Amino acid sequence: MSCWKVRDCRQTECEGYGRKMDFCWFSNSSCDRGGDISFKERFSKYCLECDLFSRYLEEKISGPVEVLNLIRDIVGRINRCDATLEDAYFRLQHLSEKLSQLYELSDLMLSSLNVDRVLYIILTAVTSGQALGLNRAFLFIVDDEEKRLKGKMAVGPIDLNEASRIWSELSSRPMSIQEIVEEYEKRPPTEQNRAINEIIQGISIPLDQTDSVLTRSIIEKASFNNIKVEECSERDRELMGKLG
Q1: Do 200 and 154 touch, CB atoms closer than 8 A?
Q2: Closest of 217, 221, 193 to residue 136, by C-alpha
Q3: What DSSP designation does 47 have?
């Protein structure tokens, strides 16, 4: 059975035209339906719904409806498995990229004995687009002697205008984490982000001041996300005002 003969096809450029022993569903391409798509895609989308394919089964096999439905079910299961495998591939690729970033970070951190440089590497990883992609990161340390939480270091823009400028520079000249960290060797982070570092390093909060989100995160050992302004303490609102 040939589609060109049954349908009186005149598309002579088709590779299956004139071949009596070749079925259209075995052709690599077809002018009838499906174009130059893969066999699997053409077979599942077109052949299983084609009257020629149905008639072929009817001629060769008894009970064509049952057989055709069985084939449709099998092809459907195969397509679903393919979709699952493709999704798993992309997830594994994403995890592989993250593991590569972690390796790069750990290698950078182990390459230095300078505490400030290591801290800068950590904050850079948090703010880099390749990692978490946050626009700013602040580091606070606990002073056990004074029982206070103190600002240590900051990475990021001071306001929206600076953020726009930085994102514009990064989009025109994307940098790896390694390249960003190398900037530290040229200019320490406090010089790169002097304004925001001055604000952060000026923060000193008593640990017993439990109305601040910063001290609560230390005492409760918990993270706080998307906190409403009206739920923040006066000190926290004052800090947010300084940081824009």
Answers
A1: yes
A2: 193
A3: G
Residue 149: strand, helix, or coil? strand
- Where are the domains positioned within the chain? 3-73, 112-243
As a whole number of angstroms, the distance between CA 242 and CA 244 comes to 6
**What are the pLDDT digits (tens) for 99-158?**
887 787 788 778 777 888 788 878 877 776 554 556 778 889 999 999 999 988 888 776
The contacts of residue 208 (CB under 8 Å, 6+ apart) are: 147, 215
Q: What is the DSSP letter of 35?
A: B
Q: Give the CA distances from residue 150 to residues 64, 146, 206, in Å, rounded to whole numbers and listed in that order.
A: 78, 10, 9
Which residue is it, tokens 């099998």? 74
CB 166 within 8 A of CB 155: no
Q: Return the DSSP state at 26.
A: G
Please name the fold of domain 112-243: Beta-Lactamase (3.30.450)
Give this prediction's pTM: 0.53
Digit-coded pLDDT (tens) for 71-100: 778 888 888 888 899 899 999 998 887 788
3-class DSSP state of 151: strand
